[in-house]
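Model the whole thing, not chain by chain.
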Amino acid sequence: MDRTATASARFLDPDVLARIGNLELLARTVVDGFLNGIHKAPYLGLSMDFAQHRPYVPGDDIRHLDWRLFARTDRYYIKQYDAETNTDLVALVDVSDSMDWTSDDARPTKLDYARFLAASLLHLSRRQRDRVGCVTFDHDPIERVPAAARNLDLSLMALERSVPRGPGDLKNAMYEVSGGLRKRGIVLLVSDLYEDPDDVVAAIRYLTARKQDVMIFHVLDPGERDLPVGDAVSFEDAETGEQVPVIPTKLREGYAQVIADHVETLRRSMTGERVDFVPVDTSQPLDHALFAYLSLRARSTRRR
Amino acid sequence: MGLGFLVPLALAAAAAIVVPIVVHLTRRRKSKVLRFPSIRFIEKVPYRAESRRRIHHWFLLSLRALAVLLIVAAFARPFVDRTDEATAAGTGPTERVVLLDHSWSMALGDRWSDAQEAAREAVSDLGPLDRASVVVFATGAAAIARSTAEPVRLRQAIDTSRVSDEGTTYGPGLKLAQTILEESELPARELVIVSDFQAQGWTGDEGVTLPAGTEVRTVVVGDGPIDNSAVADVALNRQQVEGRERVSPAARLVRTGGTEPREVEVVLSLDGQPVQTQTVTLPAEGADGVVFDPVTIGADQTQGSVSISEDDLPQDDMMRFVLSPGRAETVRLLVPPGATDAAFYVERALGITEAGEFDVVVSSGGVPSGEALDETDVLLLVDRPLGTPETDRVRDWVQDGGGLILVAGERGGWGEGGETVFPGALGGVEDRDGRGERLASVEYEHPIFEVFRGPRQGDFSAARFYRARAYSVQASDSVAVLARFDDGSTALAERRTGAGRVLVWSSTLDAGWTDLALQPVFLPFVHELARYASGAREAFESFTAGQVVDVTDARAMESAGLGAIAEAIAASEERVVLAPSGASSELTDGSSSHFLQLSEAGFYEIRPPGRGDLRPVSVAVNVDRGESDLSALDPEELVASLRSGGDVLPAGDTERAAALRRADQERRQSWWRWLLLGAFGILIIETVLSNRLSTATARSGHARMAS
């Protein structure tokens, strides 16, 4: 497990992925690499449903023999499954100005990372026959691709086209988005959540009210957790343009505490809302997020 | 005595002291701008507010505040007000002018050093509010330090002044002193005259009116016994001997003072080489003359001098001159055909000159043309009419500088168009009754008659005129009547046309119509007539220090005896002038720089730049010989003749004068300079300190991070 995970991590390293221009190729690379790595994992077949029985013929996998039926009828029957295709998965990707930032030029921006993540998740879901869709937003939805079996390409294109063009407003955007979610499904929200925790909760409630399973990927750059060391500098807000002069060296400790408190508050709030909250660091490989996603699917399947 | 401010209002700017504090508390550092996703959490960190509102470096802040205070104080122009002290002393601020005589007679003995010392003393006791000027005077006057309160400047001006080669004239110096004193706002005025008080520089009619209340002091230098010998004059008599021109220099020597006869060696030098030496014995308070053997002048612009052995006053022991070979003027006498005797008296008169001044050609033909006319300096028509074509021909020639004399006689006159050449209109022959008429009115100011001006210098009234042509002349700018007969009719008239002159004599110059030709004045009259018509002047051998020459005016230069090269000098745009002291300068056209001020005694040399083949024009400059007369004037007489005029300082000006005194005190103390300098120094220290502190703070921050 460790060996294969390490091998696949090479493909999931965001720094490497940043060099792949095509988002579909990137998603396939990620997902294939990821699936190879977890080939023996217990998650396989979780999305398969029973379809019918057929008589056993030599060569069939005996693992699929229905032993209960054999006990009742004394005949060998093989269980046949249909892929589960009735789940809608929509990725909501925050493309506001604050996402267009990285503390290290060699590393992808938060927005790029969010695009990789969303593309990979959509691709993975599509392989499991889910209907996939995508919405990009800042203070309003920008582009909507409704969930459908054939909409993977459109979704990837929407992600690829997305450019930051203004400040974000999660509450308003989620209100607008929730109107288009008529069918029960899974919603993946990828954002840096620079909002008041109460506003985040209010935004999530628009989605949960529509019977959506919400999973939040909270994307943060390492530089946002730890300020750089240095002399006087003015920090300019990427969304408002407002400047504030500080000496980062003196501010570091206090700032790290404030941001940690914020993340913790969000986690607690989301737990209270029964929403999965996955903090994602742009320096981490994508598999961390993918595992989180599959865990969610496993839990939701069990709930069903 | 107290601290005063010239601009007290500027002190209000002291409120600017809060600027460093406000800046410190509110200034946003001009630091690097770093884009960041969101500053909402940065703003939540309490660090900023606390850090900004605390003053960490009180020392730096006080330095900044001090710098602001010093700058404000500098602009308020502080000074220690000593007005009361000066007023209490009873003198009041005084404007003092020191007139320092630097004429060359001051070089005698210790006169100059005494005069300098006296001038230094005159400016040494200046009060805190007094101002002084130093004016040096000789022929002219110049303020070498004007209305200043800086003793150093005054002393420096006195120390650097030198004895000039000019003579004493009190007028310009006193006029300049009057101007300075009149311009002054100070209530008290004082004039100190430091001089040897030579009587010759004082006319008693200088017209100087000093401001009311001006106190005049005199300092006499050099009033001891005098013994000075001088070359007073050199006459250069030209003679024509066997066709060669020779010059006999004659010098007049004068001795002032002394008790015993003195033997003096007199040396004639040409081009720097002693040629002849003679010895004479000069009696006390006497004079003597020396005549040198005739010498031949070979080249133009020969520099010559007559000198005696030097005494205490060497300036007047040498007389310099510049000699060039004389040139005969060509006078062409045109007489009627077959009447060559008509010009007999004139021809003979022109032929009698010591130096062969005139080259006379008698012709009964027509007016020559071309080169022959160009070579003619004077055309003298005797009893001969001028035809229309000839009139046209001479018109241009006269314009270019030719001299035309028409002696009317019976037949003299001019053709059509002649009225543009000749003055007036000639009528018929008029007989004078009885004993004839005399010349009653003669313009003795005119160059022709100037030599006859003095008593016993020539008597025109002795000549009788029995006949003359009726001649009416309308005087104008270019036409002048120079002589009239008893009845008021015109005898001689002149018209100036271009560069030339036209003279018309309404009678004859023979013994027919008049007996003028038999009178003693005839010869010099004819000479002067021809000389004037030719435009030639007597050679001018030397200038006096202080004179000015316009080097661009060829005629002026030539008439000043600077010879034919003067034309080349005048024509070129630049000239190089080498002064006797060796100083070289350039005179270019335009503005007033083409005026050469001959301030030094010696030989000036002028030449066009880069023309090595041309012998430079030499200008001999001698000191003013009048200055050799060292007899002194009674200073009291001079002081008494200086009139005081004007009113006392108007009441309204008192306040202005007071304000001026304050300004003057402030200007002299000039504290503002030191205050600004101090502020500048403090700001430098502040910059260095704050930079070090910033670096130290950053280092400690890094160290904390590393730990």
